[in-house]
Amino acid sequence: MTLRTPILLSCRLVLVFAVFSQPILQAQASAPAAPPQVPVPPPSQPESSNDVTNDLSVAVGKSALVDFTRPITRVAIGMAEIAEATAVSPQEVMIVGKAPGNTSLIVWQQGGGRQFFNVIVHPSRAAAEDNIASLRRELKLAMPSENINIASENNLVVLRGTVKDLTDSDRAVQIASTAGKVINLLYVDVPPSPQQILLKVRFASVDRSLERQLGINIFSTGAANTIGTVSTGQFSPPTVTVPNGTTGPVATLANALQIFLFRPDLNLGATIQALENQGLVEVLAEPNMLAQDGKQASFLAGGEYPYPVVQGTSGGSGTVSIQFKEFGIRLNFIPTITPRGTIRLQVAPEVSALDFANGVQISGFTVPGLDVRKVNTEVELGEGQSFAIGGLLDNRENKTFEKIPFIGSIPVLGKFFQSIQKTRNNTELIVIVTPEIVQPIDKGQPLPQLNYPDKFLPPNSKIPMNTPTGLAAAPAPTVPPMPVEKLIQSMQPEKQLVIEGSYSTGGYGTGAGAGAGMGVGMSPTPQQPQ
Predict the structure, then answer these.
(1) Contact 342, 376 (CB under 8 A)
(2) Which of 408, 414, 471, 489 is the most exposed place for a label (fewest CB within 10 A)?
(3) d(CA 15, CA 10)
(4) What is the pTM of this model?
(5) Strands 63-67 and 37-38
(6) Separation CA 437–CA 160 (nearest Å)
């Protein structure tokens, strides 16, 4: 029994090992590959008294396994939306990347030691490559003729290549911005010169007037021992003075340019106002102006007239300064070529003239009024087409009838005691605009010339006032494509043009405390183009 017992015991151990070894081997063969283990460098001093900081990188959708030498008591991560930390064993922590970014991981160990990790989650290379491929397809569909290279790194999208204009550059940036921040390194072909628009304006106006005046004034210097006048008062009657003993009655005529009758034997006279006046004013102005597409142009052919402006002061006195106002033929417009090929015009033509009949008197000086005709509108039309942007037909009739009561109503005889004035006015106005896209006159072509009725004096100097001829013109340089930001900078609008054309003068005091003298000082005032 003693000999068989050890043999039996050994057999039993072999049988147990054979039964349990096969499941263990099968489990090892079917177990998945473990995530990569990240060794943690041991601290230089005991972990119970020092904190250690390490760097840890992982891609989105990937995991990393961190081994520790001592058991773990607690795990905390800064931003759970970037990475997730899980303790899978007493000495192992698994980090899973969720979104690109940076965060912190803190691991507490037994004995009081702590481990700090700077966790950096990188974008998944496969996802980034899918985004880049998708962007390339979208750019090819949107701009098939453009050569654009696209690359991505650290959530940055870099565009390289050459496009034909700024519109394609902006469109490429908008498409690429869906994948992250865009760095635009595209080159743009230099665009051709902008088109020039010539605006022709025809400003035609006809003013006609017809005025008729008919009236009679009767005066007596002693007829029937009576001195006096009979008048409706509409037209200036004569003035008769009463005799003072040394001189007889005297009749003073206010207006004797019409019909004047006087009978000395009867001491009776009359002035008759019988006048027909016809007036005609014709205006034809055709200003032409050239401007670039989208740029404003201004034209003025006329002058400036002075007018006083009173400026009050704190002391109760006022100062009168002289300012100038422009008049004449003015044209302001902005042309814009639309994508439809039409021309949109913002146009404001104006024709003005001095009107002394409606002026005012100030301190013995006449300040004229202005007779103005102007239009301000916005229209759209094709090249070479015309639009009547303004028109006016104005007919007016004024009639003034006066008579002396009772006697002026007597048939036939009452006509001598009546007066009438009738005025008719007719105004016709039309404004026509015609835009044209024009090109510069080629070199060597004849230039437009005016026909001068008389010859000028011959030049004193025999030197030609132009560039010497006979030299070969240098060929136009070929401009290579340039970066987007440089092209945008070169297309910025120039500094606004300042015109030195308006003046104001120092004035003289009025009111209390004003002196009798007047000091005038001229100082130019810059005027912005309108």
Answers:
(1) no
(2) 471
(3) 9
(4) 0.56
(5) parallel
(6) 36
